[in-house]
Amino acid sequence: MSPAHESDVPRMNPSPPPPQQPQGAASGAKLKALNLNFFYGSFQALYDISLEMKTGAITALIGPSGCGKSTFLRNLNRINDTVRNARMEGQVLLDNEDVRSIDVTRLRRRVGMVFQRPNPFPKSIFDNIAYGLRVNGLSTRGELRERVEHSLVRAALWDEVKDKLTDSAYALSGGQQQRLCIARALAVDPEVLLLDEPCSALDPIATAKIEELMFGLKDQCTMVIVTHNMQQAARVADFTGFFLLGRLIEYNKTDTIFRNPGKKETEDYITGRFG
Amino acid sequence: MNRSLAWRKTVNAVMLGLTGVFTVITVSALFVILGYLLFNGGKSLDWNFFTKLPLSPGELGGGMANAIKGSAEIIGLAALIGIPVGFLAGVYLSEYESRAFASLVRYVADLLNGVPSIVIGIVAWTLVVVPTRTFSALAGAVALAIMLIPIVTRQTEQFLREVPNSLREASLALGAHKWRMIATVVVPAGSKGILTGMILGIARIAGETAPLLFTAFNNQFWSHGLTQPTATLPVQIYIRATSPYEDWHRQAWAAGLVLIGLVLLANILARLVLARGISVPRS
Description:
The complex is a heterodimer of chains A (about 280) and B (about 280).
Chain A: E1 29-40, E2 43-54, E3 58-62, H1 69-76, E4 86-94, E5 97-98, H2 104-110, E6 111-114, H3 125-135, H4 141-154, H5 158-161, H6 174-186, E7 192-196, H7 204-217, E8 222-226, H8 230-236, E9 239-244, E10 247-253, H9 254-259, H10 264-270
Parallel strand pairs in A: 3-8, 3-9, 6-7, 7-8
Antiparallel strand pairs in A: 1-2, 1-4, 4-5, 9-10
Chain B: H1 2-44, H2 47-51, H3 65-95, H4 99-114, H5 117-132, H6 137-161, H7 165-173, H8 178-206, H9 210-213, H10 233-241, H11 246-275
Helix pairs in contact in B: 1-11, 3-6, 3-8, 4-6, 5-6, 6-8, 7-8, 8-11, 10-11
């Protein structure tokens, strides 16, 4: 039986752990969850999740609908703070620092997020990308154009929009809008990118483009992707975690999960005995 | 079977006919008013109306220039007070909800909307006229502002709530502080509706008469500054319409026409603003 995580997990304690690993060590874990429990009011959505997401790798979270994988993802950049009656117990560590001790806006600059349905602002394409830069005071006027272009290039969207940067973002197709949202998230140079089922609203061609994009970003950005689509996880991810009913059943290298799963539930899910 | 079908068809036709008739009655009420105003008011509307001060009954050539100016001043001041307050209250209700307090504010705003305007006039009289011992444009503006605030608050809140949450999350996920998110994403997205609410609110208070009766009162001449009794269009209509002079009656019609013209203009403007593209597509 494979362990649910790759190293021994220390017991949860209220004080922040002493920094042991150098920040962003190549073999280290960029993001760690330790004994994470999450509640919506009195309903418990996540049970004792402990998980390490390695630097420079793509980690996929799979599982049937409602199993808590999106909820888990949303705890990593504390976007659940905005949900009323939401409560998190346990720890999430970014470079071994508890995310609750970091200023939340700075955390979200370092850990970006792409949502399930494209959600560009009702502004021009240029202003959408520039938004994160402006809000964080990251660019002078002169640099803005350059950084916007750079982000659009990284998101493989530059060629398609370079002549219409002042057009409304809503003039783009669904796939283009999602790539715009990725470009927008990349503009602030995040260390981690969280993707919540980014391709679920997209056609196969757009999906392929985004997966290609993810491969291209690997060395610059640690990624965690929640996906409904097992084949996608098999295609893109280095590590995969299988969630079921709020628990992390199994977590390992993608190859192992798909070829040699340790738990029966994992095997049942992968072979399609339930969905 | 056939009899039942014929019966149902008859009932259908009768009901349809009835709804049509009542619709016509409703709509024609508006056209009757407009017709009367155009006919009677149009006769008496001339350049003097807009430029001259009122003269004694019987003297020809008088106008309502001071009332037009007075109305503009009072409405302008009321907007200056009422719009920012109403807008910020609407933002608070939509974005910063803390249950008990927000429900209370919302409830009070709704109540305020229903308070008879003459009662608001009395309140403004007590708050401003009595301590300052004078009727004034300021008092009138305060009364109208009290009426404007709940309108703007509810409209602002409503249109801000319609902005999808996904936009808020997108902004926060990029590292924006909450107030920044509101100012740069939420408010711009709801701006068309909010602006419309403000325009319609102003159109609504423009015609209020009762509160002005004991706050701004009236003035035969120009008022200087904001602390003197001020003439306004609605009050002038009231005074002239209830006078025994034929001459003044005609002037009242003219003023009524001008007033409704302004209200109509404001409504059309509001529709244009709202129609000029919804800020956020409804998905």
